[in-house]
Design brief:
By secondary structure, the chain is mainly alpha-helical. About 75% of the residues lie in helices and about 0% in strands. The protein is built from nine helices and two strands. A two-stranded antiparallel ribbon has the order 1-2. The chain starts with a helix and ends with a helix.
Amino acid sequence: MSKMNKWFLTSGLFGLLLALSGCVSTNADGTPKETGVIYRFLVKPLGSMITMLVENFNWSYGWAIIAVTIIVRVIILPLGINQSRKTMIQSEKMQFLKPQVDIAQANLKKATTREEQMQAQADMQKIYSENNVSMFGGIGCLPLLIQMPIFSALYFTARYTQGIQNSEFFGFSLGEPSIIFVAIAGISYLVQGYISTIGIPEEQKKTMKTMLIVSPLMIVFMSLSAPAGVTLYWVVGGVFSCIQTFITNVIMKPRIKAQVEAEMKANPPKTVVTPRKDVTPEKTAPTNAKKLNNGKQNGSGRNAGKQQRK
């Protein structure tokens, strides 16, 4: 497949999945439009599954929401773990390339001409390409885009499925907001953020602090005015995210780190760039000999002046 075909395929998938990730269109009375793509192919089937669990197994709608959320998350779990694994492998490899990356960045700062800047940038790209490492650290958008329509479908399934609005779960009405569920959802995502920092250098933790706070706050703000049935989806999703993050950061990451270290010892990274020498001429202080000669010349000049005056 040519690069152009790959570009068209990737951009087409990106546009399609982004469109599918949009919100469900609603009518004037707040009910969803049944002609929408997400509603017909994702929300309606998931809603039918919730209703089937309630009717056939005599479950409450709360347990049905939990079951459907877990089933969907288990199905897409391998995708998330595989993406996390790729990201961790690339991140560990980039630690071994950091000395060369620092040199390339230093060369870029020292560059005084456009040609030198372009050469430093080319060296930066060459470091990654020669060592088979992605400049983006293995972070891919496609797996995230695949998950977004599914998460949207779960959200709107919990919001629009008939029967949920009038049911209760552990004494909480699923059709009205619940501050208890909101607090549990926020705490679960806060714990998930903490687990994601395990085994990460302190420098990276500092850059992640903002995101660790923003993510739970977003969940809390979205859940404050949402029915408890929707918030219950966020609660289950947060707990499941904690489990997934524990698998990747606590169980998988030490093994991946040891694997990458062994690989790098067997095949050390290729040296691509070297520090650029500073060719700017330095101003040297006059030597003692020059100072001595200048002093003698000045002294002889003063003596000659005295003789002339005499």
